[in-house]
Amino acid sequence: MRHERQVELLKRVAASGDHLKGLHAPRSTTNAAAAYADPARFDLERKLLFRPGPVFFGLSVDLLEPGSYRAMRVDGLPLVVVRQADGSLGAFVNACRHRGAPLVDPSSNGNGLKAFRCPYHAWTYELNGELRARPFAAGGFDDVSINCNLLRRPVAERYGLIFVRPEGDASIDVDQVLGGAQDDLSSFALNTYTHIESSTNEWNFNWKLFFDTFSESYHIRTLHSKTLAPTFNSDCVVFEPFGRNLLSVGLRANVHEEFAKPEDEWSLLPYGTIQYFLVPNGMVVYQVDHIETWIVEPLAVNRTRTTASVYSPTPPATEKSRNYFVKNLELLLHVTGVEDFALMQQVQQSLDAGALPEFVYGANEPPLIHFHEQVNRVLAGVEPSA
Ligand code: FES
Ligand SMILES: [Fe+2]
After folding, report:
1. Residue in 82, 78, 110, 115 with CA at minimum distance from that of residue 94
2. Which ligand is nearest to the CA of 220?
3. Which residue puts its alpha carbon closest to atom 4 of ligand 1?
4. What residues have a C-beta under 5 A from ligand 2, the ion?
5. What is the number of the ligand 1 atom nearest to the C-alpha of 121?
6. What's the CA-to-centroid distance between 101 and ligand 1, angstroms?
């Protein structure tokens, strides 16, 4: 993050007064509990947010070599992105044009793919989606007149980030998708990072509860009293909107020590958990000495799959240094899994049972207010998708 930006954000912290009150949103708001529990509402989110996307598909460094790929389902739609021989990316519907079998496991990633070979009857496709062969068919398809190449999807890659449009043919303008966050995100030089490890897990809660848990620091004092509270501030985060995306910076409790220095020596990086929410399904987090990403896949109104990945700034030279980053991921998964997500599953059960008419988002939780406002605007048709 550019130094001026770090100073700019720190100035807001310095001027925010007791309990960082100056970082608050102008007012609190409420949101209907149905936003998390109503299947009809969930269908609308899939149709208006996830289908048109663009959805975050990971970092460029996840797909370094020709033949590296990532497959996932978005609203059930099987998609695969694969690095081409010329270094570009191809995105395809991960369904064989014969009778629909997935060409690679629909929730997987890997390397060294030379071609797509269907597991059903062995039709093969080039990595650019062109049908190469229909073996063992003894001419049984010679009279087929339709184009049997894989169905393409728009894909774009910039600033080390990959986006795919699951449905529709409009090309993707990454700058427009990021809504201004590109100035920050490009400064992190994401292309220089090394992927260490990922972990995929499923949870019984609505996908938005994932973002809610990361949105505010207010819960740290209580829910994370033993794990995070001794180190992190629990009053408010630094919030900034970027179109429908947002920046939420969680602060370390000792951030005020920085203000004893001259302003041109200020640095936010050692004190901040710098989180960029890429609505609807991604999060990129700068964490002092590494990067984390999250990809969120809604499976049902109350079921969500999450993939967390950790990246190191330089390739780890030894097993010990690699283990340091693996431990970071394990700690992240432990705290979120045992403390945040376990509670979110309880919340979801109550919402599913109709326990509450609405949620309340406080002025001290500004990212929550923005996130839900933006989602609600898309669903109301006020805001077209990017
Ligand atoms: S479904 Fe793929 S070859 Fe038949
Ligand atoms: Fe938390």
Report:
1. 78
2. 2
3. 121
4. 340
5. 3
6. 6
98 alpha carbon to ligand 1 midpoint, in Å?
5
Q: Is the pTM of this model over 0.90?
A: yes
For residue 172, give the 3-state DSSP assignment. Answer: coil
**For residue 61, how far is the Cα from the chain centroid?**
15
Kindly tell me the sign of the dihedral angle through the C-alpha atoms of 26, 41, 212, 340.
positive
What's the order of all strands across the beta sheet hosting 77-83? 89-93, 77-83, 69-74, 108-110
- Length of the chain equals 386
- Name the H helices within the chain: 3-14, 34-37, 39-45, 174-178, 182-187, 207-215, 220-223, 319-334, 342-352, 366-379
Q: Is the pLDDT reported for residue 117 higher than 60? A: yes
Q: Which amino acid makes up residue 327?
A: K
The answer to whether 30 touches 359, Cβ cutoff 8 Å, is: yes
Residues having CB closer than 6 A to ligand 1 are 96, 98-101, 118, 120-123
374 pLDDT more than 80:
yes
Q: Judge whether residue 386 has pLDDT over 70.
A: no
Q: Which of 249, 250, 247 is nearest to 233 (CA)?
A: 250
Neighbour tally for 146: CB within 10 Å: 6
Which two structure tokens, joined as six digits, stand for 322? 């690699």
| Nearest-ligand number for the alpha carbon of 216 | 2
User: Closest ligand 1 atom to the C-alpha of 99?
Assistant: 1
CA atoms within 13 A on the CB side of 361: 23
